Structure formats: C-alpha cells, structure tokens
Amino acid sequence: MLDRPTNRPDLPEEIARRRTFAIISHPDAGKTTLTEKFLLYGGAIQMAGQVRAKGEARRTRSDFMQMEKDRGISVSASAMSFDYSGYRYNLVDTPGHSDFSEDTYRTLTAVDAAVMVIDGAKGVESQTQKLFEVCRLRDLPILTFCNKMDRESRDVFEIIDEIQENLAIDVTPASWPIGMGREFIGCYDLLRDRLELMDRADRNKVAASIEISGLDDPKLEQHVPANLLEKFREELEMARELLPPMDPQALRDGTLTPIWFGSAINSFGVKELMEGIAGFGPEPQIQNAEPRKIAPEEPKVTGFVFKVQANMDPKHRDRVAFVRMCSGHFKRGMKLTHVRSKKPMAVSNPVLFLASDRELAEEAWAGDIIGIPNHGQLRIGDALTEGETLRFTGIPSFAPELLQTVRAGDPMKAKHLEKALMQFAEEGAAKVFKPAIGSGFIVGVVGALQFEVLASRIELEYGLPVRFEPSQFTSARWVTGPDKEMDRFINVNKGHIAHDNDGAVVFLTRLQWDIDRVVRDYPELTLSATKELM
Ligand code: G4P
To answer: Mean pLDDT per 10-residue run, the chain (534 residues)?
Structure first.
C-alpha cells in the first residue's frame, strides 16, 4: 500500500480509512466488470476460478445480476461497501442507461472522488465527457482507468492527449503499458518502480510483481521481450519528460488525474487502481451546509439523503433512502432528528450494502452510505442530525425540460397510476403535476429516455400499462408568494395551474411570453424553474 499523502493527518483512523467514490464511464467501457473485480478483491463475492471462457464469463455475470435480483438489490442503483487492505471502500453506482438523469448528478454529491473508466480503443466517449463535466462542477478528484489493454488499443500518448484536450485536465501516468493487444504483457508501475505482469491463463490472478531499480535494471530484459523493451524505454522517457509528475494536491483539487492502464476482465491493473484510490483518496471531505460546514470528524452524527429507491424488493414494496453520512459515529438504533419535519426518527434497521448481501448496519462513520427503509418520510435532500437544524447544500434539483401527459391504459386504474407516479416523484425520478382542471397527470423529465424508463417501471412494478402523450405545455414554474396574491393569480390562471406531489403550486405554459407576463403582473410572486429540495 502506498503511503497516505493526506491533508488531514488529524482525522480519526476509522474516518481516514474510508473511500467513497463513484465510477463514471460510457456504456461498454467495462464499469460492470471493474465493479465485479473490486468486489472480488474486497472478498465480497467469490468468483475466482469460474470466470474463464468467454461464454462462461457471460453466464457468471448474468448469474451475478440474478443473484442481486434474488436478493432484491439492484447492482445498477445502489451503493456497495467492501474492505481491502485495511481500507473501507464505498462504491456508489451511477445509473447505467445512457440518458442523462438527475440521479447521476445527485449520486455525485454523495462521493468524494470518481473513477473514470475509458476503453483503450475508444478513448473519451460522449457519456464519459458529460459525467466528467458534472464532476468538474464539484471539483471532484478523478482517477482514470484505461481498460481493455489486452485488445488492440490506441497509442498511449494519443489517449493521454485526448483526455488532456477534451477534458482540460492534466494527466499523469501512474502506470505505463508494455505492448498492446495480443502483445500486451503488463504494466510498469511508475509510482513504485515495479513491473506488473499479466497472467493470461488466470483472469482472477495478478501475476508476478517485480521490483525494478530504474529503466536500466537488467531485470527488465529478463521479463520484457526485446521487441517491446526498446519502445517501452523510449516511451517512458518521453512520458517522464512531457507529462506532469504525480501531485496529490492537484489530484485533490481536480486539476490532475492519474491514469492506470489495465484489463478489468483479466483482473489486471485493478489492484493498483484500488491502491491508488486508497493512497490518494481522498478521505471523507468537509460537506457544505447552511448555516455552517460540517467536518467529518465532528462527534455528532449528520447525514443527508441523496437517493430514494422504491420497490427494491418487489415482494415488500419497501422504500430505501440512501444516506451519505457526513460526520459522527452512527450506531444502530440511534434517534436522529429528521430536520425537515423536526421529528425524531429512530433508525433501527439501517442497511449496509455489502454487495454479497444486504446487512444490518450496526455502525457507520462519515463517508459511509447507509440505506434507511422507510414509508416515505425521507426525501431527497433531507438532513438527519442529532438535533441541529442544518441544510446540506449543493444537491441539485433540475428544471423539467420535457413535459408529457400520462394516462393509464385502463381508465379504471387512474388511482393506481396516481400512486405509482407519486412514488416516482418522491424518488426524484420525475416531476409529477396534477392539473387543477381536467384529469390525468403531466410528467416532467430532463431527458427523453426517462419517459421510457418510467413507462417500463410502472408496468413492471405496478402491472400497469401506460401511455405518454405530448402535452399542450412545455414549461413549468414553481410559484410562491403571499397568500392573497397567490389566490388572485390562481383564480385568473386556472387552466395553467397544477400541483406537484407536495401540493406546491406550479404554473404550466408553452410560452416564455406567459412567464414574463406573470412576472410583470404579479410583482409579489416568485417563479422558479427548479424547486429547492428542502
Ligand atoms: P459496462 O458496465 O461499462 O457497460 O461494461 P461491461 O463491464 O459490461 O463490459 C462491456 C464488455 O467489455 C463486455 O463484453 C466485457 O466482457 C468486456 N470487457 C470488460 N473489460 C474488458 C477487458 O479488460 N478486456 C476485454 N477484451 N474486454 C473487456 P461483452 O461481449 O458485452 O460480454 P461478455 O461476452 O464478455 O460477457
């Protein structure tokens, strides 16, 4: 394990050893495979020896998904924790589908770092770029894994240049690949001057690690075929000359990303990446909140809900709120204050997602993600504290950009539809508006694919076929103001008024002109495109 270069040497050990991160990537780059290998190293799953042939590999993976399904845990949506080499890793998964949802943004508010996985043959792809931009908004530290080096991939300098240019971030090589495709034999670990060789025969084993003392070490000649060695020496010299060295502070600031090369499917480079996450972290960070920031080492427990997931177990219709712990030492059974309702809440059955199973969380520290089953009290953005009134900031809510009307295939099932829609609205999966006049609901989303996802979830989870149809409205604005002015406004604009799932008043329109008119005619009202989550 690398020494821990930290800017917080004073943190208690339990907090200092926690690493909470997400993986960002374009579909197919290898996120699932990498996640599985993390879990394998973390001892959370045992697949060793099973994943050999391609066909078998596929079966194993779908078995794994099936296993998750059987247990009611969705790999694509939850947080998983595992231990490796003295560190506790909390991996928060970002949604897998390609449409961009609010979920992803919120997930990234719960982590301290992100691992960016790119395919060595494809480089920076569109979804990676989008997700990267979100990370940048939050100055999240990013560690990069260039995957599939066992296949023909692009020239290493070209890959690094592309990252530097497209993402405007400095790149420092943490490892350097030797050969590629069929000739790929392994990597040179620049952080520790070690040769890491890949074992093609056993995908779950990291082969030899050989200490090297510089590029002239004769041991290189013993292990690296002559045709690769010369090119490798040249490249490494050039890399050291042209590329910046590792700088932990620049990584923490989000201005430099170290890159590891490897092959997730061959378990190659994964261990080094995990050690990189451990070594460079960062540890749980200070969280922005009003009226004051929260430091992880504060003795009192605080946390916020960044995700709500309904129907994780279709048999039980439970709802789990995912809470990022921000400070203190949480113990099961603790009474916390639910700040929004100002009510105490006994947290008696929190769950920790230890990948292999859903376990009761006996305790949790800053940085951990716990799931709290509840009946709808906990909403995205809610804070839990030991009494203090706090609001964690930076959890975004998005203006719905696309509005559609939704109807149940069977008109007799309108009540069921309402229930399903309210559930999704609470999850933050969509904005749901009930017009003051007429029947039906209007659903607002950020990306078009969300309509499809919603339709299939409503059918799957509620057995209710639904139809989405174009709505006469294209914009929604939340309206607030003094009661008298609100009443006057609502009476005059009935055909444009709707209520969201909290009963808040929303003005629906298709013209910017309408919005400008309301602003002019009702100076005491405030119109906003988003709703504060608290
Ligand atoms: P994703 O979650 O990012 O979408 O990617 P996933 O891990 O599902 O991987 C996408 C495909 O890339 C899979 O192939 C997977 O096996 C393959 N893959 C992942 N890592 C590596 C690697 O290091 N080298 C090579 N050569 N391939 C890799 P698939 O054909 O979709 O499935 P399967 O038949 O391999 O199971």
So the answer is: 60 94 91 87 54 36 40 50 90 66 80 96 90 86 96 94 95 95 91 86 68 84 90 93 94 96 92 94 92 96 90 66 95 95 92 65 91 87 95 81 90 88 84 90 86 86 91 93 96 95 92 92 91 59
Residue reference for tokens 């004073």: 10
Residues of the chain with CATH 3.30.70.3280: 399-532
What span, in angstroms and rounded, lies between the C-alpha atoms of 121 and 188?
20
Pick the closest to residue 90 from 30, 149, 45, 39 (CA basis).
39
Mutate to test the pocket of ligand 1, among 26, 36, 206, 265 (most ligand atoms within 8 A of CB): 265
Give CA separation, 303 vs 291, 332, 336, in Å: 15, 14, 10
Nearest one of 19, 2, 143 to 89, comparing CA atoms: 19
Which of helix, strand or coil describes residue 184? coil
Coil, strand or helix at 506: strand
Predicted structure pTM score: 0.82
| CB proximity list for 114: less than 8 A, separation 6 or greater | 21, 22, 23, 24, 108, 131, 135, 140, 141, 142, 143
List where CATH 3.40.50.300 sits in the chain. 18-82+97-280, 287-392
* Contacts for 440 with CB less than 8 Å, ≥ 6 apart: 405, 406, 407
Which amino acid, one-letter code, is at 417?
L
Tell whether 435 is in a known binding site.
Answer: no
CATH class for the domain made up of 18-82+97-280: alpha beta
Q: Is position 97 annotated in a ligand binding site?
A: yes
Q: Please state which CATH number belongs to domain 399-532.
A: 3.30.70.3280
Residue 275 CA, ligand 1 centroid: distance in Å: 23
Burial of 218 (0-12, 13-18, 19+ CB in 10 A): exposed
In whole angstroms, what is the distance from residue 381 CA to residue 394 CA?
9
**pLDDT digit string, tens, across residues 19-66:** 999 999 988 899 888 988 888 887 765 543 333 233 433 333 333 344
Q: Is 32 annotated as a binding residue?
A: yes
- Alpha helices by DSSP H, listed for 248-360, are 248-253, 270-280
Tokens of 294: 């929260």
CATH class of 287-392: alpha beta
Q: Are 475 and 508 in contact (CB under 8 A)?
A: yes
Substitution site in 26, 28, 56 for ligand 1 pocket (most atoms within 8 Å of beta carbon): 28
